Amino acid sequence: QQPVQSPQAVILREGEDAVINCSSSKALYSVHWYRQKHGEAPIFLMILLKGGEQKGHDKISASFNEKKQQSSLYLTASQLSYSGTYFCGTEIGNNDMRFGAGTRLTVKP
Amino acid sequence: DGGITQSPKYLFRKEGQNVTLSCEQNLNHDAMYWYRQDPGQGLRLIYYSQIVNDFQKGDIAEGYSVSREKKESFPLTVTSAQKNPTAFYLCASSVTGVYNEQFFGPGTRLTVL
């Protein structure tokens, strides 16, 4: 029931853009995005709800296609601080959350 | 300071012993979750609870047990039936409403020798 994330890893130079994709085989209540730095707990970035509502980070954007059960996270003009592993979380039932395997993002100077 | 605490940060146990991981939150959240994290596999859901005295199995519940006697506490027991218990365990909590982003604890790294 875990969603599928792609790519598994990406390396960027500062200022470059990246897109991380998340796809589920199940109908979704919502999609969450989190970032985890090595040895730390995941931190919430964004939540996307059915119907288009969003809440979250002011420098990172995301989309949610309810029909296709897919979401994408857009990282533009990346900064060194964006490095980490990004996880999408898909809510497949009320508070029933499944996370993807993660996308490791490395931003180099 | 509101947050989630997990203790201990590192835990070592001998094979065949049960071990209980602690998770406490003072965020007044109704929902709590336990995840297991292994390299390359993301966060896999073990159990979650939406309310006191109620919990549901996640994808990998075999060999684990939980209780939810108090709103603030959701301890996880790793039993001897869990075949490969060495992992990083994360606890999280959230509200049960629409904007139910999860807040994670710092995690417990369990090593079974």
Helix content of chain B: under 10%
Q: What is the 3D form of chain A?
A: globular
Report mean pLDDT of chain A, rounded to a whole number: 91
Number of strands of chain B: 11
Oligomeric state of the chains present here: heterodimer
Radius of gyration of chain A: 13 Å
Most extensive chain interface and residues per partner: A-B, 26 and 26 residues
Radius of gyration over C-alpha positions of chain B, nearest whole angstrom: 13 Å
Structural class of chain B: mainly beta
For the report, how would you describe the main beta sheet of chain A?
7 strands, mixed
Low-confidence segments of chain B, given as residue ranges, are none
How far from one another are the termini of chain B? 36 Å
What does the main sheet of chain B amount to? 7 strands, mixed
What is the beta-strand fraction of chain B? Answer: over 45%
- What shape does the CA trace of chain B take? globular
Task: Kindly describe this structure.
The complex is a heterodimer of chains A (109) and B (113). Chain A contains no helices and 11 strands. By secondary structure, chain A is mainly beta. In chain A, strands 2, 4, 5, 6, 9, 10 and 11 form a 7-stranded mixed sheet that branches. In chain A, β9 and β10 (96-99) form a beta hairpin. The mean pLDDT of chain A is 91. Chain B has 113 residues and is an all-beta fold. Chain B is built from no helices and 11 strands. Chain B has strands at residues 4-7, 10-13, 19-25, 31-37, 43-51, 54-57, 64-66, 76-78, 87-94, 103-104, 108-112. In chain B, the strands form 2 sheets. In chain B, strands 2, 4, 5, 6, 9, 10 and 11 form a 7-stranded mixed sheet that branches. In chain B, strands 1-3-8-7 form a 4-stranded antiparallel sheet, with no helix packed on it. At the A-B interface, β4, β5, β9 and β10 of A face β4, β5 and β10 of B.
